[in-house]
Amino acid sequence: MAYPDYLVYGVASSILGYLVVRLSAPSLIRALFKAGLRRPDAHKPGNPLVAHSGGVILFLGFLLSFSLLIAFGGLGFSEKVKLLAVLATSALCFAVGLLDDKLVLKGVLKTFLTALSIIPILVVALTYPAAIDWGRPVVPIIGRMRMTVIYWVLFPISIAGSANVVNMLDVLNGIVPGTALVAFAALAVIGALSGDGLLLVIALVAVAILLAYYPFNAYPARVFNGDSGSLFIGGLLGAIAVVFHLEFVVLTLLLPHILNGFFVVVSFRGLREHREVKARPIRVENGILKASDDPKAPLTLTRLILSVGGPMTEKEVAKVYIAVEVVAAVLAVASYVLTPR
């Protein structure tokens, strides 16, 4: 399919995704709340209850938008296979997250289940290698590498890692969709620079859906993402990294998330479900967030930001995260430009 055709169907799918999320979110938020999917907002006075599992809203938007592309987008067989692999992998991450929203899974089990989400991409890579050039990641300056054996080992981590580091950063209103907006905007730029219409379309759809969803999760949040939302977004980024050979680019985009995840894992000496944390890394006083003085509290990127920058409001901390993600996005695009093809 010609590049301009991608743009036409990409814009149509993006508009559909935006409208679906924007118009359905209010009623879905009420439905989630009534269904008992709600959590206290620990950073607000009085800890008000807020609807949970906003990933349901996000997944609905992506499912309908991608279905439109597959059914009417005029995609070739290879493009359809790639898109289906990305959708199926991220859908499995969504399912794991939704299960965790209801049952509260242990950290190790959740990581293992998200690692299994790589199966759709694995099936495509083995049965239709023309769609995915197996085991050949691309890195700046060096270019395309051949590391088939090592890639087998790292393969599951590509999805589980990206999904769980995004999940670990879902600590304040607006951070996950805000940083994801920047990340997918960077991927759209890379899609345009590379002439990869499918990547551009996927990124445009993601930007549109996140733009529609962001106001509902931004401060003061009307819905929390839940693990269904954060694992879905992280899984989607991981799937794009593998399918489009953008491993280094996505790694760069996730640098803030990875740094936070590193702090958390080191603090806990392993994987731990965030609801198991007893000593909180931050404290709230009259709507102002401050770094915890408790030596038993885990070190997180939020705690580090507050330790260095001093007390802030929740909105101010979210803005810092988005600003850091913008820097990561610039580095990611630069790394792509510096990569020989």
Automatic annotation (TrEMBL):
Provide the topology term for how it sits in the membrane: Multi-pass membrane protein
One GO cellular component assignment for this chain's record is: plasma membrane
Keyword rRNA-binding on entry: no
The alphabetized list of GO BP terms reads: cell wall macromolecule biosynthetic process; cell wall organization
Q: Which InterPro entries match?
A: Glycosyl_transferase_4 (IPR000715)
Keyword tags = Cell membrane, Membrane, Transferase, Transmembrane, Transmembrane helix
**Molecular-function annotations in GO:** phosphotransferase activity, for other substituted phosphate groups
TM ranges:
6-29, 49-75, 81-99, 111-129, 149-167, 174-192, 198-216, 228-246, 252-271, 320-338
Q: Where in the cell is it found?
A: Cell membrane
* PANTHER family linked: PHOSPHO-N-ACETYLMURAMOYL-PENTAPEPTIDE-TRANSFERASE, UNDECAPRENYL-PHOSPHATE ALPHA-N-ACETYLGLUCOSAMINYL 1-PHOSPHATE TRANSFERASE
Any idea what this protein is called? Glycosyl transferase, family 4
What is the scientific name of the source organism? Thermofilum pendens (strain DSM 2475 / Hrk 5)
Lineage of this protein's species? Archaea, Thermoproteota, Thermoprotei, Thermofilales, Thermofilaceae
